[in-house]
Every structure is written in structure tokens, then in C-alpha cells.
Amino acid sequence: MAGNDDDNRVLGDYAQPVIPNSPSCILLPTEAKNYELKSSHFHMLPSFYGLPNEDPLSHIKEFYNVVSGLPMQGVSEANLRMRVFPYTLKDRAKNWLMTLALGSLTTWDAVAKKFLEKSFSTQKTATLRGQIGFHSKHKTQWLVYCIVLEIGLHSKHTK
Predict the structure, then answer these.
(1) Residue 38 falls within a domain, yes or no?
(2) In terms of CB atoms within 10 Å, which of 58, 79, 100, 109 comes out highest?
(3) What tens digit of pLDDT does each residue of 85-105 get?
């Protein structure tokens, strides 16, 4: 095809990375793109590093509190969350976000769901279930012990 730029490229040209116009997996609506973030906003944001000892639910709760206090400036809170959320992620968590497909997250619910799916792995969920089961088992054993003790004490007093 005459005039096609791909016809004029050499093999070395294909080895060069192509940087997209919007290298984010979060596709922002125009109103959110135009929101002006100030340096004071960045200092208020919580940070999440993706470490095993971090609590993603606490991060989301703190994030909600901070975002709800920011001036809306003609943008919905959900869209503002989408705009600001990537700035809360650091190190491993930021690297994970950069691996997601470009433009694949188009709503705040999708962003939050993907974050929680990643942060609450099946291993972490299984560990939490095990801890809950461990505590429940010991509470049940303690309750049975108390009932047996009470029955024993009651039978001694009735004799």
C-alpha cells in the first residue's frame, strides 16, 4: 500500500517501545482528567505498598475519608476516587497497577474490586478463616468446660 508508514519501517523500528497517550489502566472521564490536584492533596493521601502485613480495607476506608474531604470542583466523588487512587499506591502495589491492561478499569467499583481481589489473595483469606476457626474452636471448648464445671458445682451443692 502506497503511503502506509508501516511499509517504510525497518525491523529495528519494531523493537522500540510505543508509549500510549494514556498509559494507565484507569480510563478517566473528562471531568476527572480536568480535576486539578494540588500538592496539599498529595500529602493527605494514605499510602499502600502491597506488603503482606498491610490491611487493604483500612487503606480504602482511610482513602474514602480523605477523598470525601477534597473539594469536588464539578467532579463526582466516584470519578475523583478514580483520579486520585493511583497516587496512593507505592512500590509493589504501584507495579501491580501498571501491569493491568490499558483502559481496562472504567468505574470506581471496577478499580476497588480489582484492588481488593489482588490485596485479598486466597492465601490471605484462608489464613483469616483459619484464625477465625481457631478462635471459635477455643471459645466452644471454653464454654463446654464452664458448663461442665457449673454442672459439677451444682451437683455437689444438691447432695
Answers:
(1) yes
(2) 79
(3) 999 999 999 999 999 998 899
